[in-house]
Amino acid sequence: MEIEKNNRMNSLFEFYGALLTDKQHSYLELYYGDDYSLGEIATEFDVSRQAVYDNIRRTEASLEEYESKLHLLANFQAQNEAVGDLVRYVKSKYSGDPKLNELLARVADQAAR
């Protein structure tokens, strides 16, 4: 469960990190991206461990709120799943069509960005 939460927070951070304050951005980057402990972040910013904890929890809630309104992560995941389904189908049914495979590769490349 912890790994899933970390992956989700990192994904939400990728989409919405620019909407965070500098402090929120720094705390989350250190906590989730660089695997700093709350104590290490507190020392780095000369604040209490509790202040770091509270800030991270509020920031997580903000990221979830952004996602509930904008759905960028959910849409990205759905798009990637649909492209993956399409790739598998074309490879199984039309593997001999070079033009179709080239076009599909372009679509898959764009979807991955």
From TrEMBL:
One of the record's GO molecular function terms: DNA binding
Record keywords: DNA-binding
Coiled-coil residues: none
Protein family: Belongs to the UPF0122 family.
Function, as annotated: Might take part in the signal recognition particle (SRP) pathway. This is inferred from the conservation of its genetic proximity to ftsY/ffh. May be a regulatory protein.
Name the UniProt record assigns to this protein: UPF0122 protein ACFQ5K_01955
